[in-house]
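Could you help me review a protein record that somebody else here produced? This is what I was given.
***
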Amino acid sequence: MPSRADDECAQIIAERESTMNPVEPLVQGFRDLVAAVPDVIQPLIIALAGAVPFVEGELATTVGVLGGLNPIVAGIAAAGGNFLCVFLIVTLSSRVRTATLARRARREAVRVSASSTEPDGDVVVEEAPTKEKPESKGKERFRRYLTRFGVPGASLLGPLAMPTQFTAALLVAGGVPKPWVLLWQGIAIILWTAASTVSAWLALLVIYNVG
């Protein structure tokens, strides 16, 4: 028969699992996958993890180092996967913004042309402005970084507010040139991934005395 202490322990575990960060199971899944595949494929798993928002290079390299992967290999794979995803998002966002601006310009040209041919006295009815959804706290924080520190500072501090994939898309949508976004997002990914790699390696070195 289970004791009362066992029941209380099971209840505590259940409560903890119910309040667990949704990223934790994802990270654990990548960790298990790294342990299950051959050594040669492990960097690819870490690169894949680095491309996932909220995991990115920081957590991906930590998974690799704690999983026994060489810290340098883990860091390069994690940062590479993270940057590749950001590159694709920036490229796609840039094309979408260009198409949107072109479409808006055509609509404005049509509107001006139509208004110039309308007889005097006609009443032009403007569309009611659409109600915008409130921004998330992360987006608000990132915009404050952008206002205060510009693109370089916002890119470096961006991971404190939201994933690099989201910050890169916001920068492109705001009109920041694509090369400038890629440059500073790349620098941010390298610095944050390097810091996480060193931290994970030091943790293994100190706690488990593994060099």
